[in-house]
Amino acid sequence: MRSRALLGLALLVAGCSLPLPRPAEDRWITRAEEMVRVGDYRGAHEAYGRALSEKSTTDRALFGLARLYVAPDNPNRDYRRAYEHVERLLREFPHSAWAPEARAWRELLAAFLSQREEAERARQEVQRIRQDLDRLKQIDQELDRQRRR
Question: In this structure, are residues 86 and 107 in contact, taking their beta carbons and an 8 Å threshold?
Fold first, then answer.
């Protein structure tokens, strides 16, 4: 009887040491992270999307997508989309392990996007002023022509 109990306990301990099957979404995230490492951003995006559809580790997938969108060598870098993913992570998973870093990313991305918008407004204002100057030059030239006559 005692040997049976020990055998049962041994089997239980052995069973606990076997690797647990990983959920499908974890496999997609692992695959996405590997793709990012080798520069396959399109494939990584698709893999993160698959992980999101699996629902369990959505916070990790959202954070991965945000990082993917700010990767310097990603030809489809998109700071606005990165911000949206970080916002969603913080809205849907405020107590996530990724939340503290996501809050820092949100602040940095918000500041960057704000500066970029301000720079765009300034660029448009400079362009408007140049157009005004061109019109004034044309008026000045026309006045010179009229004076010479």
Answer: no
